[in-house]
Amino acid sequence: MLAVLERRELVNSPLTEAGAKLATVGAPMIGLPLSQGRVERVDGLIVCRGLPKWAYARGGTCVGSVYLTGNVVSDRVLRHERVHVDQWKKYGLLFPILYWLAGSDPLKNHFEIEAGLEDGGYVRRSAR
User: pTM for this structure?
Assistant: First the structure.
């Protein structure tokens, strides 16, 4: 399905960029009122901490350029979330649908694999 979208130039377009920006504007409307922790900008990512568990999936959720979490924040996790920001820019408002279609198992989800399973905390860091 991703290949079809790319052939039809429905990715990395002004439309998808606009969708990512719309998501980035909308996410703080949820994140800011619910946040009981620090809200900060880290390398272009808006991090809203202290949200109730029901407001995000797993350790946190990236919506546009906004990361909504309880308190799962580290350099590695933020690197993982910045890849999701790029995915939002590439697919725009199609991203949540494509993510859902990719499945809930992060070990098989293309988008989580691309973002880095180790950085996202889905697998243990391999011995190097």
Answer: 0.90
